[in-house]
Structures are given as C-alpha cells and as structure tokens.
Amino acid sequence: MTGRHIAFTGLGNMGSGMALRLIDSGFRVTVHNRTKERALPVVAAGAEFAGSAAEAVASAGTLVVSVADEAAVDDVLFGHGGLRPGTLVINTSTVSPGYARDASTRVAKAEAHWIDACVIGNPRQAREGAMRVLVSGAQEHVAAARPVLEALGGVVALGPVGQAPAMKLAFNLLLGAQVASLADAVRYGRNAGLDRDLLLAVIAGSGFSSKVMAFRAEVMRTGAYEPAAFRTSLMHKDLRMVLDDARQSGLELAVTASASRYFEEAIARGRGDADAAVVGEATGPADG
C-alpha cells in the first residue's frame, strides 16, 4: 500500500478537485503549483504547500501528477523534480501511449515507479470522488496505488503502461467529435430558421443525446464557456495526439481530423481557455 502522505503537483480545475478529495479521504497532502494562488484554496482545506516540485516530491513516497501536457510532466519529473528511489508516480495527466512508455522507462532508471491513472470525469466529479480512473502499469505498482485511486473513483485496470492513455484518448476522440457535430447541427438548424435555444434543448433531451452532449448543449445555450470544464486548448491537444499516434501506424481518422480543426480555429480566435463547447458559439446571424 502507499503511505498516507501524498505529494500532488498541478492544481488546475481537475487537479484541485482531486487534491481536495484526497484530503477529505484522510490523506496528508503536500501540494505544488506553478501559480501559488491556485494552491491557496487547497491549502486552506488542509494541504501543506511546497515551494517547488522538487520539495513536493521529496516530501512523500507517492506523487500524483496532474498537469497540462507532456512537457509539463517532463518538467516535474525530470527537470526540477528530483525523483527519489522508490517514489510511486501516479500520472493523471493526459499523455500519448508512447510518451507514457518512455516516461515509465526513464522513471525506472531513477529507481522509481510509474503508473498511468487517466481520469474520466469533470471537476465536480473529481471533487466528489466519482470519476472513472483508467489504470495501467505493473500489477504490484497498481496495487500499491489502489488506496489513492479508489479515493478518486471507480478503478478500471487495463494492463501494461500505455493502455490507459490509449483508452483515455479514445474517449476524448468521441468527446471532440460529438461537440464538433453538435456545433454543426446548431449552425445548420440556425441557418434553416430554427430557434437556437430550442434546438439545443430538444437535442439535449432526445435519444440522440448523451451525457456529454447534453452538458455541452447547455453550455452552448447559456454561453457559460468559462470557467471551462475542459479547455478548448486541451481538447485540441488531445485530438492532435490521437492523430499523431494513428499516423505513426498508418491509420487515417478523417472525422477526428475534421473535429480537430474546429478547436484549432477556436484557439485562433483567442478562445483556447474557454470550454470546448465554445466551438458552437453564436457569432453571427447564421452561425451557431
């Protein structure tokens, strides 16, 4: 089993929710975030603050990483983190399967251990411990991490390192395609003279909907794109990872490529920090 002292780095919307959940679950949590202000609510809830990633890593035998991308994971673990022998790294950041396997090898060279713990859910579910946690890695390391993982949600074990990131990206592929398709449906309906709010409400309540689509339909209807449940920039990043991974094995994903462009265009409009639903933003008389 892991100890009850957890180091946690990366306190975005999801990371903050997870860190607070671990505190509520009885863990002693030491946190670090590049922007200290983001850590203050978690510290107020009982966490200890570390002034650097290295200080956080040195404080506990288990490190949970929840950062934006592979470069940020690299910085935490191999830049200034200073992994100690025996440290168990639980990576909840969305990375490619290939990166996960490479990082696991590099972590092992430091005599530490890596598991993938990709989370499916939103910030509220993170706070409530109601996420689905996709896990891959050596069985003994997954077993050691179980107390932490089960505090965050229902655990789905998938096999060796890299499998959980592949599953997570498959989920996010579906998310991106659904949101882009919903934006198209709204544009088409609006161009045909349908009331935008009514169209979104009917879609959300129909058999064609899903929990994801109903949630994004309401975000589109209200225009409440910030704070983002899932930033447009991260959606685009994940779809690009899917496409890059597929391309390396000669696989073409035309729908995913098309969806990716919607989020790329939103980023170009300065909406990268808005929720992914912003691709359905009403911007003109015949534009959803």
Describe what is shown at a glance.
This protein has 288 residues and is an alpha/beta fold. The chain has twelve helices and eight strands.
Can you describe what's shown?
With 288 residues, the protein is α/β, with parallel strands linked by helices. It contains twelve helices and eight strands. It has helices spanning 13-24, 36-44, 53-59, 70-79, 97-109, 123-128, 139-152, 163-191, 196-204, 211-222, 232-248, 254-268, and strands at 5-9, 28-32, 48-49, 62-65, 88-91, 113-120, 131-136, 153-157. Strands 3-2-1-4-5-6-7-8 form an eight-stranded mixed sheet, sandwiched between helices. Helix 8 (163-191) crosses helix 10 (211-222). The longest helix has 29 residues, at 163-191. The N and C termini lie far apart (51 Å). The model has no long low-confidence stretch (mean pLDDT 94).
Observed structural traits:
eight-stranded mixed sheet, 12 helices, alpha/beta, single chain, 288 residues, 8 strands
Spatial sequence of strands, sheet with the most strands: 3-2-1-4-5-6-7-8
Mean pLDDT: 94
Span between N and C termini? 51 Å
Give the SSE string.
EHEHEHEHEHEHEHEHHHHH
Secondary structure class reads alpha/beta
What's the alpha carbon Rg, rounded to whole Å?
20 Å
Query: What percentage of amino acids are in beta strands?
Result: 5-15%
The unreliable regions are none
Shape: globular
Task: Determine the fraction of residues in helical runs and give it as a percent range.
Answer: 40-55%
Number of strands: 8
Largest sheet: 8 strands, mixed
How many helix segments?
12
